[in-house]
Amino acid sequence: MSGFNFDVITLFPKAFELISNLGVITRAQDKSLIDVNLYDLREYGEGSYRQVDDKPYGGGAGMVLKPEPIYKAYESISKLPKSKTLLMTPQGKVLKQKDLLRWSNLDQIIIICGQYEGFDERIRCLADEEISIGDYVLSGGEIPAITIINGLTRLLPGTLGDPNSLIEESHNSNLLEYPQYTRPPIYRDMKVPDILLSGNHNEIKSWRKEQRLKRTTERRKDLYQQDN
Ligand code: SAH
To answer: Which end of the chain has fewer surrounding CB within 10 Å, N or C?
Structure first.
């Protein structure tokens, strides 16, 4: 074991094949900066049918993940000294860049993915934090888990080509990034602002700062009004 450990409990381990094809994560895996270990919930299921879910007490639509398989899978994971357990749920705290930064100082994140109508309430006791990736409902916690693995991995030293790209990007501080351009200087009558071609670094710097403020107030007043 080396690097940052992600240990994920999921009923759909195949969904995580995606992360081996996502640039930054592939590179981080190749360089052993991260380890992603998948725990197939089905293998911890009960009886010959490997049952993992059941009907909700009190009635209602759909199936709910049972506590025993998730507890069993969870207890089979070796915990590193700096470890946190995250439960994926639309009822959790909405994920922010600040959370990813905070977690990037850990050694390990254990992620529990729900499915179907959700999970037995007693599963919540395993979690240090309950996390939602936004105010909408997906069919499972796999895409939220991949979101966290992706967002956190790119913050780890050695994963990005140029670590400076983290400094001024959107959501680092409460400002969105300034508009970016590359060659050619004119494309279909759309011109790169003269100032970016001027070579005057001080002016470029203040233009960018202005643009960040403008963008944020136009698009995300809510961010601009937050003080941290
Ligand atoms: N009936 C549940 C939702 C179940 S969705 C409720 O109303 O709370 C099935 C599973 O998908 C959840 O247990 C959770 O693990 C995952 N999921 C769905 N939407 C999510 C979101 N926005 N953020 C994080 N996880 C989510």
So the answer is: C
What is the rounded CA–CA span in Å between residue 1 and residue 36? 10
Give the chain's domains with CATH numbers: 4-153 (3.40.1280.10), 168-227 (1.10.1270.20)
> CA 185, CA 195: separation in Å to the nearest integer?
12
User: Ligand 1 mean position to 134 CA, how many Å?
Assistant: 10
pLDDT of residue 227: 57
Overall pTM surpassing 0.90 (yes/no): yes
Give the per-residue pLDDT at 11: 98
The residue whose CB lies within 8 Å of the most ligand 1 atoms, and thus the one to mutate among 85, 89, 116, 149, is 89
Interatomic CA distance for residues 226 and 174, integer angstroms: 7
Nearest atom in ligand 1 to the alpha carbon of residue 62 is 1
CA 209, 212, 217, 223 dihedral sign is negative
